[in-house]
Amino acid sequence: DADVTQTPRNRITKTGKRIMLECSQTKGHDRMYWYRQDPGLGLRLIYYSFDVKDINKGEISDGYSVSRQAQAKFSLSLESAIPNQTALYFCATSDPASGANVLTFGAGSRLTVL
Amino acid sequence: GQQLNQSPQSMFIQEGEDVSMNCTSSSIFNTWLWYKQDPGEGPVLLIALYKAGELTSNGRLTAQFGITRKDSFLNISASIPSDVGIYFCAGRYSGAGSYQLTFGKGTKLSVIP
User: Fold this and answer.
1) What is the C-alpha to C-alpha distance for residues B6 and A114, in angstroms, rounded to an integer?
2) Could you tell me which residues come within 8 angstroms of residue B97 by beta carbon, excluding any fewer than 6 positions away?
3) What distance in Å separates the CA atoms of residue B81 and residue B15, rounded to the nearest whole number?
4) How much is the mean pLDDT over chain A?
5) Is the N-terminal amide bond of A8 cis, ω within 30° of 0?
6) What digits encode the pLDDT tens for the residues A26-68?
7) Which of A53, A63, B100, B113 is deepest in the core (most CB within 10 A)?
8) Cβ neighbours, 10 Å, residue B28
9) Which residue did the predictor score with more confidence, B63 or B94?
10) Smallest Cβ distance to A103: which of B40, B101, B104?
């Protein structure tokens, strides 16, 4: 099994729908992140969490919310999806005890908003 | 936020050729990381650099942490078809909020057999 598992891997939805992307990890890391990837724009940070119930906004948090109810789980929600949220979303974890912010990524969730 | 300039944006090379790509920043970084993303997958860490001037290899890959601490380079020798993918640099800068990583926009590598 993968260290960082994202579900669903692919989702097509309509404008205005609420969408949740889920992430679970077996690495025992405290820190979890959600990134968005768009062609030619690289990876941009949406939200991050350093511990259960700890939530911090990243570079592009507008239109998104997250929940960290357990160390191993970090979910990303789009309350009312819009077409420009069509993108590839990645969850990642890191272990501050490693001495550097080395991220381990999931395989990604491709979201299409029509 | 911090900006990273990664170049080139894309490369088409013949199998067997060497590849070079680089990232530059406007700020001093204290960590540089290089990731590779295969099609349909998440990025995977290739090399991590922690000291200015550090040169680290991982098989056919070699990366360097620039002396100025504002740049990093990745070289791939004798490319093979499985080197195809998107390569990302990422850095952690030395200022406030320095626990976060900034990513470059990626270099898309295509290898022609």
Assistant:
1) 32
2) none
3) 7
4) 92
5) yes
6) 999 999 999 999 988 889 999 999 999 899 999 899 999 999 9
7) B100
8) 13
9) B63
10) B101
Among left, alpha and beta (phi > 0; psi -120 to 50; other), residue A43 is beta
Three-state secondary-structure class, residue B61: strand
Residue B99 and residue A100: Cβ atoms within 8 Å? Answer: no
What's the gap between Cα B24 and its chain centre?
Answer: 10
The residue of chain B with its CA nearest to that of A91 is B42
**Tokens 């204290």 belong to residue:** B30
Beta bridge partners of A35: A45, A90
> Which among A41, A102, A104 has the least Cβ separation from residue B105?
A41
- Residues 4-23, chain B, touching A (beta carbon < 8 A): 6, 9
Which residues lie closer than 8 Å to B14 by C-beta, 6 or more apart?
B79, B111, B112
